[in-house]
Amino acid sequence: MTGTAAVTESRVASRLQGSGAHALELDGVTRLFGALAAVSGVSMRIAAGERRAVLGSNGAGKTTLFNTISGDFLPSAGTIRFFGEDITDLPAHERIRRGLRRTYQISQLFRGLSVLDSVFLACRGVSRRRFSLLRPKAADVNRVQAESILNAVHMEADRDTLVATLSHGQQRQLEIALALAGAPRFILFDEPAAGLSPTERRDLVAILNALPRHVGYIIIEHDLDVALRVSDYVSMMHNGRLFKEGTPQEIENDPEVQEIYLGGGHG
């Protein structure tokens, strides 16, 4: 990052944090599947630029909560606000246009494209020129942005590699790159460390910690070590409800958390 870019990032982060703005506000969010309440009455405030971990054992309701925030499911009850705007009933693509991004547990990539082309299309897809049929030039703003994103996720050497030939860890890196397309304001990371080797997990921690500070995120992660190293605050879920919240240190040392999360047989 250049000195100018670092100063600009710092100013953006300070302005957002100083304004007291919330990136996400959840009030009584509930998602029912028949008689089953996968998520029940979840209320949460996440500041602009905040990095939040949402933890819990399998079946706690974490991914269903993500699906309601991203618009894959509409909540059965409650409201969701994104930077002050009520997005409860908005479809997923409208939430994306407002700067919300997410990754998924299972990679959803275009295996027949190169790494650079994949990120370029993601950048073009959220730009005003997304319907243009003109072939992009080398200095095209979306291509330049794609190159910059690949540098940020340590994939510049793989720019011309076919996605289908990438390792599992590289595919997870590429998913993060796609989530960074189009200057996102907030990102939902759904188990980005799943299936990664210890070395790849260390790289993931470095990538997430190096993201621009004004870009907040929520991370769902089963690897407690990864989650606590990349978050400012932690929300624990149990049986579809918020169970406990605190700093990474408070959560790590909490006996009830250790019993439910570490001793609960999660995989």
TrEMBL record:
Domain ABC transporter positions: 24-264
UniProt key word ATP-binding: yes
Listed Pfam families: ABC_tran, BCA_ABC_TP_C
GO MF, one annotated term: ATP binding
Keyword list, A-Z: ATP-binding, Nucleotide-binding, Transport
Protein name as annotated: Branched-chain amino acid transport system ATP-binding protein
Presence of the UniProt keyword Transmembrane in the record: no
